[in-house]
Design the sequence.
């Protein structure tokens, strides 16, 4: 059997024999295909059939030499070399994954990957700041482990509202075909699963709703067939908690972590959640020993050990140490805008407050759980009334509205607390939480019912008569932001408020596209309406917190208005992080706290929560989670528990004991956060450690500028119409022409009008990122490579768009020069790998004809420079081109192992194998990984893809 990496022939086609073939099967890749086009052939069946069908036998073959039949110019040959380079997936680069992803990660995003490669198994907590790109960081690790052959299956566990986002990231950016497992998809996936196999075993890449799989009836089955790598998003929600939901999540992940050889990556921007016990619980999932440590008082050995598994960086850490010449994060401009309640609305608020105050006092003689739920009922009712007249009507008239709850979980105290106070473990719910009154077992007499009905009627009258200064103010604020070039998101707490605001904006801002998104829409509908917002006209999004996580909004919006202030600063950070994040094209994003000057509820929230959160962010450069369990007491005491003897006079106690205790605990959390961010920002890894890795990758696979050059050059020869976007210079518009080959035409989406593309990552709004793995690049490279080997002519009789032989007369050389375009393969062995891996690269070698049979070989950089820059200076007739091509090809046809050309190519490829081996070792030294055992074995002979003959011009004397 030929050596893995060599060329074989089977079924009247040439293939590359891949590593990984065993006694049962042979793995083959088409000679002109990509590494994702692998065919497995039964070894036994092939040998049996070979007696009657010789074409089934796998036999040695050679890459065909070029001929002089299709001689063209330098551009045609250069384009072929570019196509061969763009077709590479298993590139001879230190990191295997970079040839298979469709984004260009920022240098700082490689740090978790380099950390992961030190670990066996990979156990990590990635806690970088909101908007830094933790999803990309985690999937870089997953893709690298996959391409190294260390994993064959992976699962992402996330809240249900994030499943679609994860599926898109896996498929579009990392080319991993993922299925979503949640209640609505189970039946279809079961039908696709072969008999005798389990769904969790069958699908290699899974995105799973953690709230689906955490239950006892689903957990056992998943654990039985759990993949080698599990990524847990929003990992703060798996810390042990009093509520049923958090406890079940924790039990699930704890059982996953109990298998010592399983790779596990936890992602969260809030690992502490305001409490050291939460942090210990999370790091205890990485290593049980960590759960026993005093994280506030680690010794040097403990700190060093934890630092191998934990990375936590602020944007300031990244901007100071990882400036890579690309646009950084946007600047966040914080603004405060305010309004004053009209007399009618203030009187409504005062009367509702008096009613709620009585509700709180009526619980003084009850047990603590009952009394606490009455607090929540009063706060919920008050909050609805101050959100909007529409939400007030919903709360006052429809108190029995049922809230979402998992069928397996009761409506317990912790669940209500999560809904009312927006704790991290609660799924965003934007319906008025009026059922909390029913939960509090409150029975209203006839007089109270009439009182509530009268309050609701007053709320309706305020809306009908236009007495809502809050609404009028936000319309004016939105108009000003749009005039300044911003596209804002208006964040509302309740569906009723969002509907109310969106309707008013549509009536008042008729030239603006207003999009409304609430929790009453399904995931697909939300994404569809957001994607439908036009990019060429003013736009505004009115939304509830149902999309404060999980949907990328920064491509269309760059400002945020908090129409309803969140009652948890963690939620405020999540909202603003939708626009202030990695990939935002605007240099500045605006975030507006919008509140009433005489709205005492807003006053309490700002003074107790949001003002301190802003101060902490300015001082620390990062958000610090609120100890949420104490928020309830702080807000309740500030609003209700210190009252004026005059029942008509509202007094707020901002220095109540609960508020003081809350701020003390928050200060302690801030100090813990400051220490951990200083210690675990991974300052030991530097820009100078990562930049050489990316440079080595670009030399083999091509950088974005080279991808662009390939696409534009190929398009010009395939009747693809490419023109600049009239308003975005970094965007190109592409559409097929009448003579575009059908296979290339099919690579463009079926749409009216041209496709907008960009070679920048992050990508400008409205454009698709085109990297080397984009379907257009992949199709162009495959088509051109196959066309060159087939030496075909187009149907109209014109020469093929690429050629394996090019001949030009040029001033770039003084003697007859030949450039050899080759593709080399290597077998790469890494420590602990069971099988070698295949690595490939496209190389350029060159020599100058000297006296007699002597040849002077050019340095590799000089040969590449000639290929990319040499231009024709004079015409050559077809006969002259053919004569020069035959001169060189006849010589190459005589090449043997003892021939100088063979010997020199052998030496160059051996040197490249040595350089590649050293590059792998350099990377492993950076990550402190074992260096011994890395081998790179070149496969001979290399594929001679093509050649370019450069004849010097005759100089006149």
Sequence:
């Amino acid at each position: 059997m030929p050596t893995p990496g060599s060329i074989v022939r089977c079924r009247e086609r040439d293939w590359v024999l891949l590593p990984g073939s065993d006694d049962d099967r042979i793995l083959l890749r088409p000679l002109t295909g990509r590494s994702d086009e692998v065919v497995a052939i039964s070894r036994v069946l092939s040998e049996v059939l070979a007696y009657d069908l010789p074409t089934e036998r796998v036999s040695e073959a050679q890459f065909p030499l070029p001929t002089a039949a299709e001689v063209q110019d330098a551009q045609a040959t250069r384009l072929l070399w570019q196509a061969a380079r763009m077709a590479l997936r298993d590139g001879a680069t230190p990191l295997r994954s970079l040839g298979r992803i469709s984004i260009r990660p920022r240098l700082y995003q490689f740090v978790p990957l380099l950390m992961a490669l030190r670990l066996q198994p990979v156990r990590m907590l990635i806690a970088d700041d909101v908007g830094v790109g933790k999803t990309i960081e985690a999937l870089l690790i997953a893709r690298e482990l996959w391409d190294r052959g260390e994993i064959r299956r992976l699962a992402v566990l996330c809240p249900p509202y994030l499943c679609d986002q994860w599926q898109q990231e896996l498929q579009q950016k990392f080319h991993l075909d993922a299925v979503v497992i949640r209640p609505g998809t189970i039946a279809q996936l079961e039908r696709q699963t072969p008999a005798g196999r389990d769904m969790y075993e069958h699908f290699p890449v899974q995105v799973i709703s953690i709230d689906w799989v955490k239950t006892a009836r689903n957990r056992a089955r998943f654990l039985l067939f759990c993949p080698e790598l599990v990524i847990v998003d929003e990992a703060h929600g798996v810390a042990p908690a009093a509520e049923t939901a958090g406890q079940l999540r924790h039990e699930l992940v704890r059982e996953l972590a109990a298998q010592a050889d399983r790779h596990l990556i936890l992602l969260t921007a809030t690992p502490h959640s305001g409490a050291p016990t939460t942090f210990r619980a999370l790091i205890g999932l990485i290593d049980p020993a960590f759960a026993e440590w005093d994280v506030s008082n680690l010794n040097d050995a403990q700190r060093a050990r934890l630092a191998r598994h934990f990375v936590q960086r602020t944007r300031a850490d990244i901007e100071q140490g990882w400036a890579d010449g690309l646009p950084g994060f946007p600047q966040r401009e914080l603004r405060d805008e305010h309004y004053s309640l009209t007399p009618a609305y203030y009187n409504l608020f005062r009367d509702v407050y008096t009613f709620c105050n009585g509700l709180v006092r009526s619980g003084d003689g009850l047990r603590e759980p009952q009394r606490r739920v009455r607090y929540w009922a009063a706060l919920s009712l008050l909050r609805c009334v101050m959100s909007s007249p529409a939400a007030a009507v919903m709360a006052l008239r429809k108190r029995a509205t049922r809230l979402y709850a998992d069928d397996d979980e009761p409506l317990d105290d912790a669940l209500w607390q999560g809904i009312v106070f927006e704790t991290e473990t609660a799924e965003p719910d934007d319906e008025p939480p009026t059922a909390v009154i029913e939960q509090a077992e409150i029975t209203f007499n006839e007089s109270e019912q009439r009182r509530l009905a009268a309050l609701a009627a007053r709320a309706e009258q305020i809306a009908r008569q236009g007495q809502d200064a809050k609404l009028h103010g936000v319309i004016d604020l939105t108009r000003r932001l749009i005039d300044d070039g911003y596209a804002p998101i208006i964040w509302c707490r309740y569906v009723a408020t969002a509907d109310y605001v969106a309707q008013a904006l549509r009536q008042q801002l008729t030239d603006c596209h207003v999009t409304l998104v609430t929790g009453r829409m399904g995931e697909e509908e939300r994404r569809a309406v957001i994607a439908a917002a036009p990019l060429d006209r003013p736009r505004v999004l009115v939304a509830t917190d149902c999309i404060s996580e999980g949907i990328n909004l920064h491509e269309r919006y760059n400002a945020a208005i908090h129409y309803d202030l969140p009652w948890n600063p963690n939620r405020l950070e999540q909202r603003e992080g939708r626009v202030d994040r990695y990939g935002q094209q605007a240099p500045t994003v605006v975030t507006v706290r919008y509140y009433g000057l005489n709205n005492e509820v807003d006053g309490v929230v700002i003074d107790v929560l949001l003002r301190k959160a802003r101060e902490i962010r300015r001082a620390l450069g990062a958000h610090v989670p609120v100890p949420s369990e104490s928020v309830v007491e702080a807000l309740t005491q500030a609003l209700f528990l210190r009252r004026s003897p005059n029942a008509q006079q509202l007094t707020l106690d901002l220095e109540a004991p609960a508020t003081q205790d809350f701020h003390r605990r928050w200060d302690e959390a801030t100090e813990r956060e400051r220490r951990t961010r200083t210690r675990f920002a991974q300052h030991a890894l530097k820009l100078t450690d990562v930049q050489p890795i990316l440079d080595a990758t670009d030399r083999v696979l091509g950088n974005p500028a080279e991808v662009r050059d390939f696409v534009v050059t190929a398009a010009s020869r395939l009747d693809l119409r490419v023109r600049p976007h009239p308003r975005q210079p970094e965007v190109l518009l592409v559409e097929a022409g009448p003579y575009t080959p059908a296979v290339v035409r099919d690579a463009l989406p079926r749409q009216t009008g041209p496709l907008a593309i960009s070679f920048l990552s992050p990508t400008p709004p409205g454009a698709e990122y085109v990297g080397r793995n984009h379907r257009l690049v992949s199709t162009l490279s495959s088509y051109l490579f196959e066309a060159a080997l087939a030496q075909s002519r187009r149907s109209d009789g014109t020469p093929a768009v690429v050629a394996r032989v090019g001949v030009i007369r040029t001033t770039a050389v003084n003697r007859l020069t030949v450039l050899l375009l080759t593709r080399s393969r290597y077998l790469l062995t890494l420590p602990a790998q069971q099988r070698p891996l295949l690595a490939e690269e496209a190389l350029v070698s060159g020599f100058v004809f000297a006296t007699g049979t002597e040849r002077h070989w050019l340095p590799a950089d000089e040969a590449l420079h000639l290929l990319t820059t040499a231009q024709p200076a004079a015409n050559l007739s077809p006969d002259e081109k053919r004569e020069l091509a035959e001169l060189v090809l006849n010589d190459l046809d005589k090449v043997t192992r003892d021939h100088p050309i063979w010997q020199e190519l052998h030496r160059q490829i051996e040197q490249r194998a040595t350089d590649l081996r050293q590059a792998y070792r350099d990377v492993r030294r950076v990550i402190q990984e074992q260096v011994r055992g890395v081998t790179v074995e070149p496969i001979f002979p290399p594929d001679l893809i093509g050649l370019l003959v450069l004849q010097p011009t005759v100089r006149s004397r």
